[in-house]
Structures are given as structure tokens and as C-alpha cells.
Amino acid sequence: MQTKYKVASLLSIALSVISFHALAEQDFLDWLFTFERQKNFKPVTNKQYQEECGACHFAYQPGLLPAKSWEALLNAKALRKHFGVNAELDDDTLKVIREYAVENAADKSWHKRSRKIAVATEEGPTPLRITELRYISRKHHDIPEKMIKGNKGVKSLSFCDKCHTQAELGVYDADTVNIPNYPNWND
Amino acid sequence: MGLKISVASVAAGIFIAASTGTACADDDNAKNLDFPSAANIYTQDHRYLESGIFKPPAFLLAANEGDATKQQVDVIPAAEFRPPLISGSKVHQYLGLSTVALAGLTMLAAPENECEQSCTSQSEPRQTSGTTHTRLARATAAMAVATVVTGLIYHWDDFHLEDGFADPDNQHVMLAGAGTLLMLYAVNKSAHSSVPTSHAGIAELGAVTMLFAIKLTW
User: Fold this and answer.
1) Domain range holding B127?
2) Which residues contact A50 (CB under 8 A, 6 or more apart)?
3) Are residues B200 and B132 in the same domain?
4) Which residues of A touch B117 (CB under 8 A)?
5) Is residue B29 in a domain?
């Protein structure tokens, strides 16, 4: 095939992709034809979710857990004993937060890290803690305990935003990690 | 010749930029470094000792260490942290993108009269080196190998067999590896053939495979 035909074919494909993207409704096509980076987690976009969850702890991106986990965590009964604390919400607020979390859960997301979590949690028991996910624990296993539990600036793996400086944006790349009191530590 | 100089200059430019970036990153760390607070306290104590009003307690060292521990908290606040300009994973990323870009340039620089299907021997000997196309092809193959090597080094803990074939990182590794092998095969096949040989399809399939591998973890 001559080069000019190849170039013409590639341009046609590029144009088709761009125009098709405008019409695309399915998630997979959206993912396939977007140039936006989707390596990490989709950041929290729901104001109510951000305010209610963020009032007590870091507002974890829904893509950190599969939908079955959010369903188990975000119901009236479970919130009465939310990891040892009463975190009850009124019905309307709970409905909004629950729907948002389930709709953006790991198994509904095309963001890479969410897909990894979704694949890993497809079978087996429903995970209730992000820190217990195989992917998360594996990514942190080589960090000495003194840098987390023994570190006044961190205290627990649950406080993602203490070390992941762009956690609120859903970015958890190793390049953005800065462990308080251990600025020169490298994975 | 013009293109050769250009490619060499660009490569040199990237190398210098990378080196400078690393140096800059180190400078930032150096600027953020502060003397250990224990040392500051010692200096102050030293002046205090010289003033003559000091009564040395037995717990001086322990007290200093205690203060130092308190002052060490949040030496560099997270808000002031700036990610490094150059890191291993960024190098891997840029190498992967450059490989695909070079593959595209190689395709554009392909000779017009090269046969792809019913290849028969021609009167003129076939050039297997020295042309823009062959140089770009070799550079693409080399960059693909460098991409795979840097990926293995800097993302070794990202792929695990136990996660299965559906895991995006595992898919990335398999597709990028396959794409690299296809491109290497195409270059090797063409370089060792004295007659025109069909290799473009294999090389293009390799480039597309690598592009899809990048997309999976983009």
C-alpha cells in the first residue's frame, strides 16, 4: 500500500474517532476515544458526598471500592456503626450519597486503578475497608510501620491525603507521594 | 543528512533536558532541607552555656532530643511538595509515546516502490541500511526495547500473575511486549533480506498494539 493511502486512511480513522466520540454514549467507547488521562481514580464531583463524608474523614473516591461494598457500607443500619462511630444521615442525603457512590464505584469506572480493584474484588467476600484491598495493601507493603503508624504526621493508612499530595484529585502516583517527616523516602 | 542531524540533536536535547531536570529536582530537595532542629537547639544551648547563667541538668541530651522530635513534625508540609520533573515512570511514559511517534514517522518515510505482496527480485540491490526509513525503524525498535526495560524496572510491582489476564497492568505488559516483539521481527526480517520483503503490516500491527497498551494505562 502506498504511503499516501496509508496517511489518508489514518486521517480518516482519526476523523471517524473524533466524530464517533461526539456520538458515543457507551462507557467503553467514551474511555476508548478520550484523550483525557484516566490512569488514577475519578475525583469526587458530588458536593453533598464531599461535604458529608469529608466532614469526618478524607472523602474517598467511590472508585476505590466496588458497588457491592458501597451498598454494604452506605445504608442506615451500617452507618449507625460506621467503623465504630455513629454516622447516621437523613434519608434524602443517604440516598444521594449512596447513589453517587454506587454509580461511580470501581466496577462502573473505566479509570485504570478502579478497574484493577474491580477485577480483584469481582469474586470473594465484599471488602469493607479500602486498606484491606489486595491492591492497596500490596502497594503499601514495603513501607515501614514507623512511617505510617509510628508517624505522627500519618498515623494510619486510612489517611490517604497525608502522603498522597494529590489524593483529592484522585491522583495516587508514586511521584506525588510525600510522607510527612520522611521527605526523602523513595519506594 | 539533514534528518540525521536533526534526530541526533533532538536526542541530545532530550538527554540534556532530562539531566537538567534531575539536577533541578535535586536542587529543590536541597533547598527544602533544613538543619535538624536538634542541631539548632544545640547551637542555642551553646550560646546559653557561654552566657554563664546555665545550670547543666542531667537530662540535657534527652530534653534536646524531645524538643527535636516535636519540631520535626511536618518539616515539609504536603502542600509545598512538588512532584519531581523527571522520574523513572515518567521516562517510561515518554519513551512509550516516543516509540509510537517514531513508528509513525518510520511509516511515513517508507520508500514508495517497496513491494508488500508479490515480491520478486529486482535488478537494483535493496538498501537495508543508510536510508531515513531504516534509521527510523531501528531507532523505533531500540526505543521500544528501552520502553519495555524501563517499564520492567519502574513498574515491576504493578503486575502480578495472580491478578489474571483481565488486570489492566497485566494486559499492558502483554500487549506492549507483543508490540515490541512484532516491531523487532519486522526490522529484523527486512534488514536481513536482499530482496523486497513484506514487513510493513507486521511493524504497523506492532505499533498499534503498543498504542493500545499505552491506552490501557493512560
Assistant:
1) 87-216
2) A44, A59
3) yes
4) none
5) no
